[in-house]
Give the backbone structure.
Amino acid sequence: MLKAFTLLAAIVLFASCSNKKTKEVTASSPFQASPLDSAYAPLRPAVQRFTIDNSKVNSIQARNGTEVLIPADCFTRANGEKAEKVDMEIVEALSLPDFVSSGLITLSDGRLLLSNGMMYINARTGNEVLQLKEGTSLTVSMPT
């Protein structure tokens, strides 16, 4: 059950790498804008950056123990071309203070849900946000 939840959370938070055809998009901050940004900034979990070779199977281990298994050739550009070098951003939010400072909430029917962890994943080449190739997926394991 926990693995299914973890995978679902990763898929939901991986929206910037969806299979939708889009034009080149400049990557933005993983955090929601807030009037309290100056207060939240020092408390937010770190944006971790990794560079991978898309032609190979990759495994990333983030600082707090989240592991991401990335299959070979899974990232494509908006025009369908395979990306070569991929810059990955990962943010692990594993505690209530992380959720609050990151502006993360999970709701169902307007009610707050309890979560053991969330994460943000983004894949880019330069300023172009990449997509997951149809039929591929990432495997995510979180320590919570």
